[in-house]
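From: lab user (bench 3)
To: helpdesk
Subject: output format question, protein + adenosine-5'-triphosphate

Hello, I'm new to running complex predictions and I'm not sure whether the block I got back is the full result or only part of it. Here's what I submitted:
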Amino acid sequence: MTIVERSATDALVERDEPLAQLHKAFGDAAAGRGRLILVSGEAGVGKTSLVRRFCDELPAGTTVLWGGCDALATPRPLGPFLEIAESSHAGFPGAALGPWSASHDVAATLLERGACREALVVVVEDVHWADEGTLDVVRLLARKTESTSSLVIVTYRDDELARDHPLRIALGDVSTAAAVERLPVRPLSRDGVARLADQLGANVDTAWHLTSGNPFYVTELLAYGAGHVPATVRDLVLARMAQLGPQATAVVEATSIAPPALDAGLLLAVCGEAADSVDECLASGILQSGEGGVSFRHELSRAAVEESLSPA
Ligand SMILES: Nc1ncnc2c1ncn2[C@@H]1O[C@H](COP(=O)(O)OP(=O)(O)OP(=O)(O)O)[C@@H](O)[C@H]1O
Ligand SMILES: [Mg+2]
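Helpdesk reply: Thanks, we reran it on our side. This is the complete output you should expect:
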């Protein structure tokens, strides 16, 4: 039984190797050596697209249980698993599960299902937004899934994890479990960007300069044209900025008008005390630190912030 709708996705660029890793892990799971794969990468790098494509390629009849976390101020307890349980076709004993359930009951239900049936794929998306209960389920699955026929795929953004983010602690806890594998999803190379740009007759140099290979930025740019910042990109960047304190906001704004990078001396001269908030900017994923100082991870996000400073 397949739960996820099979979609006719467009060709994915430069994803043969990660797809091969997922298929290999599925083969292991089908042979009774369950795996848990941590699929990580920056926002928009293509985690969901990769996992959806993999699920589309699974043998007909494979059961895929798919649930995700949402960007809520108060995360829904066990949100991804309730989503799975609520799916009318899931064949998952949802009646037994609710926000009141204990993490070990959820994990036990999934493990039981993985142990007694044909290969099972469980996808838990966006755990950077997970509640503690969901992270506990992931911990339990990481430790116990090896003796089942389950492939558990967990995705998360790794560009906005502050040092004390609960997911960091969970990742540390599961890192030594034998069933756990990592699958970092990388931005596209310049050639990859060229392939996408060619399809739409866009300028490759501009697309590469503005996006640094982030497929979300590339596809939005190609859809809206390079003349201005796409509204979707602006919203993403400004939503992230809205979570920063006033001093970190000042650092990001100053960096946006000093391309390509703001060095330590200039940062202090322009921002004064606020320069101390640079770590918050780095942890948010908006800025990165390099030889020349701090800079935006993507030129397009810099342009979005700079544009937001301009009088309308
Ligand atoms: N390898 C690829 N080739 C072509 N287009 C891609 C590729 N990967 C992703 N895309 C496109 O980029 C956009 C963002 O992809 P996706 O939603 O999978 O990113 P994500 O990493 O899941 O982002 P988020 O962190 O926001 O969940 C989508 O429009 C998708 O079609
Ligand atoms: Mg996604």
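A quick orientation on your result: Residues 230-312 form one domain. Let us know if anything else is unclear.
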